[in-house]
Amino acid sequence: MKSSNAFRRMLLPIVPVLLAGCIVVPVGDLLKTPDLEERTLLDGGGWLAKKKIALVEITGTISSSSDGGLLSFSEDTVSEVKARFNRIRNDSQVKAVVLRISSPGGEVTACDVLHHEVMELKKDTGLPVVASVGDLGTSGAYYIAAAADSIHAHPTSIIGSIGVILHHFDVSALLQKVGVAAIPVKSGEFKDLNSVFRTMSAPERKVLQDLVDDMYSRFVDVVVAGRSGLAREAVLELADGRVFSGTQARELGLIDGVGYLEDALEVARKRAGIEGATYVHYSRGRSYGAGIHAAATGVRPGAEMTLRLGTAAGGTPKLYYLWRPGL
């Protein structure tokens, strides 16, 4: 009887909360991003110290923004890759880095930041960096790969699509059919540049084309700097947005070798001048299988983003280094 009364007294303070339909839950720990964990893919031995080759995955559409929900642990591609690079900087046992790339590209600035991060990693550590392309290494993904010391791809990889795109939609004719008109109040002629609610004028198109051309020139500069065997004129001939197979890309000088992930890892090992390498990668508390290929294909730093075209109210059009056929 006494225990029953004690239980009632314990429940009494929370009954009004339950009746109101509100439950206070401490979710602070749930919202924390799990720490990066190093996972060994292949142990090369060594009692006191290991000579590691770090595998860093860059997969999916590259973005600098997160699409995660309230309890999602996913971060944007840029933050995830930078976090992995910081782990490498703080680990003297890492002797080389392999970028496992499987991406159609993404936002111009995000791709440029990651290219910069690869260059900074090389400068800070002196480590050799080898890019290994999986199914896709196009546009912004190739932009990033150009920062590596050596680029390798599968014979069936799709490489290239060097260029920039800014999507524009004109829905004014559709709006006229339903009797809707957009009437912006603006401070200047170009304030509603790239509006989907009316036809683009010639001056507006020139402004946007100049912007695209500037970003395109930067892309070409990056490729010329990264591919010492290609003159600028040769790059320009290939930089019209077209794509190539891994075999074709090798013949054209866009990559250094055709093979598989194991071949790229071997190139990294030789560049590092080590024997018996231990291959590692980093994940956030999730299991992706026991093998190198499971890790290389299962991790998506910054989940695949939905392409935002800015057609809805509040949407922001973006420049992309992106290969997205049919759009």
Describe the protein's architecture and organization.
With 327 residues, the chain is of the alpha/beta class. It is built from 11 helices and 12 strands. The protein has one domain (34-322): 2-enoyl-CoA Hydratase, Chain A, domain 1, CATH 3.90.226. Helices cover 35% and strands 19% of the residues. The strands form 2 sheets. Strands 1, 2, 3, 5, 6, 7, 9, 10 and 11 form a 9-stranded mixed beta sheet that branches. Strands 4-12-8 form a 3-stranded antiparallel beta sheet. Strand 2, helix 3 (77-89) and strand 3 form a beta-alpha-beta unit. It is elongated and about 75 Å long. 35% of the residues are buried.
Helix-strand blueprint:
Elements: H1 2-11, H2 15-19, E1 37-42, E2 52-59, H3 77-89, E3 94-103, E4 105-107, H4 108-125, E5 129-138, H5 140-145, E6 150-153, E7 158-160, E8 165-166, H6 172-177, H7 202-226, H8 232-238, E9 243-245, H9 246-252, E10 257-258, H10 261-272, E11 278-283, H11 292-298, E12 319-322
Parallel strand pairs: 2-3, 2-11, 3-5, 5-6, 5-7, 6-10
Antiparallel strand pairs: 1-11, 4-12, 7-9, 8-12
Helix pairs in contact: 3-4
Task: Give a quick set of tags describing it.
327 residues, 2-enoyl-CoA Hydratase, Chain A, domain 1, 9-stranded mixed beta sheet, 3-stranded antiparallel beta sheet, 11 helices, 19% strand
In short:
The protein has eleven helices and twelve strands. The protein has helices spanning 2-11, 15-19, 77-89, 108-125, 140-145, 172-177, 202-226, 232-238, 246-252, 261-272, 292-298, and strands spanning 37-42, 52-59, 94-103, 105-107, 129-138, 150-153, 158-160, 165-166, 243-245, 257-258, 278-283, 319-322.
